[in-house]
Amino acid sequence: MNRRIFAFLGLAVLLAGCKDPEAQGGSGTFKDTSNEFVRAGNDVIVKKLKIYPATSNSVQGDAIYLVTFNFTNTIADPLQPRLEHFVLEDESKVRHTALDGGSPILAGINNDYSPMKKGEARDFTVGFNVYQSTTGALYYDPT
Fold this sequence. Notes:
Blueprint: H1 2-16, E1 31-33, E2 38-40, E3 44-53, E4 63-72, E5 86-90, E6 95-97, E7 121-130, E8 136-140
C-alpha cells in the first residue's frame, strides 16, 4: 500500500514539473515559433509570435496568434495609435484586426496607446484570430 502512495506522489511531482509556465493562464497549449507566419510590414519589427488554439466556438479562426512587435511612428506628429489599426493581412488579402481582449489568452495585455511623436517607437502585444498556418504581413493602417 505504501509503495502505491509513494509511486503516485512521485508521478504527480514528475508531471507537475512538465508544465510550461508561459502556457499558464491561457486555454490549451501554445506553439512558440519563429516569425515564419507573421512578416513585418512598414514601420514594424516582429519580436515574438506564439500560437494558441482559439476557443472551440470561434467562427473567425481556429488559432490566436499572439504577436509582440515594435512599431515606429513615421505617419504623423503626433499619432494616437489605435488597436483596430494594427492589421495582419494574409496571403489572400484578408485583413485580420488586432485584439487585446475577449479571450483568456489575451488577459493581462496592457498596451500604451498614448500619443506618439513622429520617429518614436513602442512595443505592443496583440492577438489575431486566424486559421492555423495563416501567413501574412503585420502593419499599421492609419485609414
